[in-house]
Structure to design on (365 residues):
């Protein structure tokens, strides 16, 4: 059977995870179509691949394309747009693979409008930790496959040359002094996704960081720069005002990881940017003041970053992170994370070929 793949992408993280294999599929002439939301489509377009908007009736659209495999990312929040296509694939007898790109919300990615699970035939996860956590949340182990995240593999190759010279050159481009103590805050739309259920929002976390840096600036004896990287959904959010001790900068434009690697410290809440920065060797602190429930940032669980959950502890945590070498005591965790990413594109591609050509049969529900 000749491999032919349709990909459906609802979220940026999923689009980034599958983009490397989409490029391989395109080169082999096996990529029939990519259907994506606007944010996910931007990722695919940057990879130089054709993409069409999501829309229309999934069953009719998939039936017209006649692929031998449906490959999707995963989303959560409102009803994930991938689910209608997974249901259509099941109805048409088309095998399916979905990739979980991050270590959280495993089951929520597959819950339909009626509350029932809508599952693909195989679910690719980043590592063994994610597999165990997904099973603990309730996903069936027989459908889970550890492939790694191809996006992380690509990041390791792309940024391995981001050395001191590259760091200083980037700072010059964005108007940040070479000698400034720069902290990047990676924001995300917590209030939009959770309301106040987590005990904090992006605004209260940012305020805690800015306030904490007032003390840090006093302890280190000079002002600090707090660069704020807003999420695409937060484009209209107003940044806090600068003070004599903490200058606020807009970390828009350029790519987020260049900002992160050019910074002395990266701070945020549960953003994938924090995990990616930690894997690439940066100092990372997760600030979730007043957290209610579980900590959703995997790099804290994996030993790659520090979590702070009490506002009173923010300033000391930021100071300690700035004062010590990156990843002091976590080198083993970094090696594990990089090892899980290495070869991820090949492993996911191997699974796609096996399921999509019928050399390995799909799960029958």
């Amino acid at each position: 059977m000749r491999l032919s793949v349709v990909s459906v992408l609802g979220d940026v993280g999923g689009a980034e995870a599958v983009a490397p294999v989409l490029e391989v599929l395109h080169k082999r002439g096996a990529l029939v179509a990519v259907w994506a939301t606007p944010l996910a489509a931007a990722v695919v377009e940057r990879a130089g691949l054709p993409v069409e908007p999501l829309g229309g009736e999934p069953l009719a659209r998939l039936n017209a394309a006649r692929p031998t495999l449906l490959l999707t990312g995963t989303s959560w929040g409102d009803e994930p747009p991938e689910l209608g296509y997974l249901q259509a694939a099941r109805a048409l007898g088309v095998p399916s693979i979905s990739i979980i790109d991050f270590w959280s919300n495993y089951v929520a990615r597959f819950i339909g409008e009626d509350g029932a699970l809508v599952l693909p035939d195989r679910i690719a996860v980043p590592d063994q930790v994610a597999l165990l956590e997904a099973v603990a949340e309730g996903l069936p182990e027989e459908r889970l496959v550890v492939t790694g995240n191809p996006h992380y593999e690509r990041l390791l190759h792309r940024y391995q040359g981001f050395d001191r010279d590259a760091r200083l050159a980037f700072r010059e481009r964005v108007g940040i002094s070479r000698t400034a103590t720069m902290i990047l805050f990676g924001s995300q739309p917590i209030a939009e996704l959770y309301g106040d259920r987590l005990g904090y929002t992006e605004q209260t976390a940012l305020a805690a960081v800015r306030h904490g840096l007032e003390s840090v600036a006093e302890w280190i004896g000079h002002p600090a720069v707090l660069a704020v990287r807003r999420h695409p959904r937060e484009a209209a959010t107003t940044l806090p005002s600068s003070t004599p001790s903490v200058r606020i900068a807009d970390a828009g434009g350029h790519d987020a990881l260049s900002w992160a690697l050019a910074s002395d410290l990266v701070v945020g809440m549960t953003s994938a940017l924090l995990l990616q920065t930690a894997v690439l060797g940066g100092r990372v602190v997760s600030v979730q003041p007043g957290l209610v429930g579980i900590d959703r940032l995997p790099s804290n669980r994996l030993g790659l970053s520090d979590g702070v959950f009490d506002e009173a502890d923010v300033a000391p945590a930021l100071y300690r992170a700035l004062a010590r070498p990156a990843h002091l005591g976590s080198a083993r965790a970094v090696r594990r994370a990089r090892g899980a990413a290495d070869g991820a594109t090949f492993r996911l591609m191997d699974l796609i070929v096996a399921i999509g050509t019928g050399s390995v049969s799909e799960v029958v529900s």
